[in-house]
Every structure is written in structure tokens, then in C-alpha cells.
Design brief:
The protein folds into 4 domains: 38 residues; 64 residues, Trypsin Inhibitor V, Chain A (2-Layer Sandwich), CATH 3.30.10.20; 68 residues, Trypsin Inhibitor V, Chain A; 66 residues, Trypsin Inhibitor V, Chain A. It is 26% helix and 33% strand. It is built from 4 helices and 16 strands.
Length: 257
């Protein structure tokens, strides 16, 4: 009987020792080995990379134990330098583990080309929304006498009228000629013959009219840049805001004055 008790006691001691070793190893694994292996508790705050240039990113993130990857899809903002950071994931200030990869979207080198919409005869408030939605910038607004109040009469890029479908770089500035709603007056067309283009434009606008199409005519008898014809002609009665088309002399290439 005593032998049985001694045997049971020894077995119990062995089982207790084995359980103790298992508990100790489990504790060491969970509290020491596993945290060190997974960098548990070691976090860094994601920096704000907005506006960083591509050449600055790698060394900046390496110093903070972070990595990065550039997204294939780039964006475009005409107001900032090419190859600068537009977006980042995770956001700035997020707590992440050391070695985490930050995904970046860079500003494209070249602006994507988009097709110019037709803004003529549209209300100014709608035009501003259209331009914003497709990535164009509303530039200067020039009011001219016209019966259509706040109606777009012309759309211009770098001083020239552009038509619907014309390809233009995203972020470009579009200037607008807009009616002031006062186009019900009857005016006489002034005589523009013999004037240069600058003086003619000044007189046209000052008379409550607006510039129409400009046509160049090659001649060797009239000084270059002189108005030789216009429609409607001098003395014609027109409504305020009406366009005046001009024909301007251009030197014959074989002629020297």
C-alpha cells in the first residue's frame, strides 16, 4: 500500500514539474519571444508627406523605419511641382508598426489632355461648375453689352477662341466673354477703316460692341496691321454687343517697305 502511495506521489510530482515547465515555456514564448519577433508594441506615427518631392521620400521614410510604394495611377494638380506627393495611405498621424509600407500617389509630369466642352450660350454659374468638374480653371471674365445677362458668349484660351472638342491640357485657364444683359440698345457701327488692330478694338469695345472674327488679307499696297474692311460696315445700325468682323492687311512675304 505504501509503495502505491509513493508511486502516485512521484507521478504527481513529475506531472507537476512537466506542467510547470510547459507554463514557463508558454510564458516565455508569449511574453518574450513572440513580442520581439513581431515587434509588438513598437509603433511609429505616419508622417505627413503631402508636397514632398520624389527624391526626398526614400531617405525620409528610411530614417523613420518605414517603406513606401508608388501607386501606378497618378494624379495631376497644375499648382504643384511634378512628382510631388498628392495622396498617401495610411493618412498622416496614423499609428503603424515599424517597417510598414506607405502607398503614395504622385503628381504627374504632364497634364492629361481633355476635350473642350461647348460653354457658349450657357449661364455663367453652370459654366463654372462644368469647368471645375472636368479639371479646367475659370480665368478672367469680360463683360460686354449683350441682351443675355450672365450668358457666355465666347470661350478663350490664351487670348484665342477655342471650339468644342479642342484638346486642351487639364488645369488650363479658360477666359470667358459674358453678356451684361444690356444689349437692347441700337448703335451705329463706327468707321474703322485705316485704323490698326489695337485702336480698332479700343473703339469697338468703347462703342458698346465686341470683337468678332479677325481675317488677314495679304497686300502690298496697305501698311501691315491696317483695317481694310469690316462687317457690319460703317454707319450700319446694330444692337449693342454685336460682333464686328475685321479684315486686316498682312504684308506679302516678297514685298519689303
Amino acid at each position: 500500500m505504501d509503495n502505491i502511495k509513493d508511486s502516485l506521489k512521484k507521478v504527481s510530482i513529475h506531472i507537476g514539474l512537466i506542467l510547470g515547465v510547459i507554463i514557463l515555456l508558454t510564458f516565455i514564448f508569449l511574453k518574450v519571444f513572440l513580442p520581439s519577433f513581431t515587434n509588438h508594441g513598437e509603433t511609429v506615427s505616419v508622417p505627413d508627406l503631402d508636397g514632398f518631392e520624389y527624391s526626398e521620400i526614400e531617405s525620409y521614410l528610411e530614417n523613420r523605419n518605414l517603406r513606401y510604394e508608388i501607386n501606378i495611377d497618378s494624379g495631376f494638380n497644375a499648382e504643384i511641382k511634378p512628382l510631388t506627393v498628392l495622396k498617401q495611405t495610411p493618412k498622416a498621424g496614423t499609428k503603424v508598426k515599424s517597417g510598414r509600407k506607405i502607398y503614395l500617389t504622385l503628381n504627374s509630369k504632364n497634364a492629361p489632355m481633355i476635350k473642350m466642352p461647348n460653354l457658349v450660350n450657357s449661364q455663367l454659374k453652370n459654366v463654372q461648375e462644368i469647368l471645375s468638374n472636368i479639371g479646367l480653371v475659370r480665368g478672367d471674365i469680360k463683360y460686354v453689352p449683350d441682351i443675355g445677362q450672365n450668358v457666355v458668349l465666347e470661350q478663350k484660351y490664351r487670348g484665342r477662341n477655342i471650339s468644342e472638342g479642342f484638346e486642351i491640357a487639364k488645369g488650363s485657364q479658360i477666359d470667358l466673354v459674358v453678356g451684361d444683359g444690356l444689349g437692347n440698345q441700337i448703335l451705329d457701327v463706327p468707321n474703322l477703316i485705316g485704323m490698326d488692330e489695337v485702336d480698332a478694338e479700343f473703339l469697338i469695345i468703347g462703342s458698346g460692341l465686341r470683337m468678332g472674327r479677325i481675317n488677314y488679307v495679304t497686300t502690298d499696297t496697305v501698311p501691315q496691321g491696317t483695317i481694310i474692311r469690316h462687317l457690319p460696315p460703317s454707319g450700319a445700325e446694330v444692337k449693342s454687343g454685336e460682333p464686328i468682323d475685321l479684315w486686316i492687311s498682312e504684308l506679302n512675304k516678297d514685298t519689303n517697305f
